[in-house]
Structure formats: structure tokens, C-alpha cells
Amino acid sequence: MTASPSSDLSDLSALDPALARTLQRFARLDADTPTPQLDYAGRRRLLSTLQAQLLRSPLPSVVRTDHFVPAPGREITVRSYQKNGAPSPQTLVWLHGGGWMVGDLNTHDDLCEHLAQFTGHTVLSVHYRRTPENPFPAPLDDVSTVLQWLHRMQGVLPFARDSVLLGGDSAGAHLALACALRHAAAPQPADTGLPAQLQGLLLFYPPIAPEQDHPSMQAFSEGFGLTRSAMAHYWQELGGTEGADALCRLPASCTDTLLRLPPTVVCTASHDILRDEGEAFARQLQAAGVPTRLLRAPGMVHGFARMLTASPQARQQVEQACHALAALLHGATANSAAG
Fold first, then answer.
1. What angle do CA 236, 202, 142 make, to 5 degrees?
2. How distant, in Å, are the alpha carbons of 40, 50, 73, 227, 247 from that of 76?
């Protein structure tokens, strides 16, 4: 499945019926949950939790375990997912979506369990600090800390390795990109602890930059889950920074560093305001010489990877993206050996 040229897909009849029903359930949940005492972030977090509970369907074959990564003045909670509880030869570090403000380990249990099921890897989900309480680059610092911890814990934890895969959905995909670019541009000094190296990136519908005005941003601005106004609010609350991290915040601007990214799969959704910017970025990676596979999931909305228990088509799209990354990595390894 390869991304096709842009077209106006705003007709709801083209949407996966299971996802359309799920969006309706979410809308009813929103309307039936008055929270005048909560601010914007608090309400969005509550609704995200309630949505996840509405769809939760655990996989008994996947074992979940919580771990706590020490960091200055805090601990970072991470959750490992292992198929049949057995160690695996590879680790996929996952960063949950939610506009950098919403989402947590629990809201992404279903997705991470299925990622472990589809890939056979140990999946390690990271609960990074969220905005607006912790502006960028706080969440990025947490991801770097976890990668350093994984390198340091080799021989102690079975999933701790010196090289891992990194991925995320939505805001988590943005953070995965930002982390990869940060480490490619300025490797960590030895006295801070070396991070695990990145072998590949798996990115679902990443936001790339604010103030995008692609056709998909206009076509799907209302009624397809993520709205244009909500995305603008998330970007505003993300905050900014100076220096090298300011570039990492806007991945497409890191033109000198892009070519050092590992093999990458970008999966967009056909009915998503972020579709066109994600696909434009994937083509930018390809032009820079990065082994990149671009997939467009037909009939899908933003956040479909979180709804894979409600939609067989969504589950199939997530599985295909996992297979695409495996094939891309196999090809990159074969090319390297041949060279």
C-alpha cells in the first residue's frame, strides 16, 4: 500500500464504517461528560482515558510489566510488553500520542500489546512529561533519558540493548523524530551516559510543523476526530526552545541532519488533517536518501492505531506498517552487507 496523489476524501461514505461508529461513540461520550471544574488539559486527559476504557480488549498472550527509570527529581514510568512473556531479540520504544498533552501508558495498552503481537519485539512504552505543565523539550529529555537507561541496563534487563527501534503515534511520532534528530545532530557526551542507538523509526501520522495549510488540513478540519483548532492548541501549548532543540521541534527544518536518520516507515491516514504534511515529510526523507516507506491507510482517521480493537481494518493497517518496517530493515541490512 503506497500513498496515492491527494484527493478530496471528505465524503464520510469513504470512511471505514467501524471507525465511523467509533467516532460517534466518542462524540456521545464527550457530550455526556460535563466537566466544568476541569481545564482544557484535564478534560482532554479524562476523555482520552474514558475512550480507551470504552475500547479496551486485552491480549492474554502479552505480558505487561511496569518499570521506573530514575531521572533528576523524578521517575519516568515505562511499561514493557512481551509476547508470551518471553524475551525477544529486539526492543521497540514507543511514544504515545495525544497532542503532547494527552495520553498515557493506559490509553495505549491496546496498541502496544498489538505491536508486540505483530512484531514479536518487546515494546517499551514511555510515559514522558506532558504539556502544558512541562513545555518542550521536557518530553524529549525524558525519551533521551530512557534511551540512556536502556544502554546502561544491558545485562540486567532482557530488553535493554545498545540499539533499539523507536516509534510513536501522532505527537509521539513527532517526539520520536525529534529524538532521532537530536541524537544524530549532537550525540550525548560520554559523561551523561551513551544512549541506545536507533535502528529504525515507525511513525503513525506525525505532526511536522504548525501553520500547515495543505489540502488535507482543510478537507478534514472538522468531523474526523482531530480538528484543526485542537491541533493549533496543541502546538501552542507545546512551547518552544532555543538552540539545537528548536530545530528538533520542527523536523522538516533539520535538512542537514535528515540524511543521518535510520530507515523509517511513515504511515498516514486518508481522512486526517495531518495526512499531507506527513506524506510531504516522508518524500523529503526519500529525497535525502533515507530508506523510507510511505503508507497511506485508506478509510482511516487520525488516531486509528488507538482504535484497532474496534476496527479490523485499522488492525490490519497497523500490522502492515509493522511488516513494512521489518522489510525495510531487512533490505537495509542486506544492502549494507553487500556494500
1. 50
2. 24, 23, 10, 30, 25
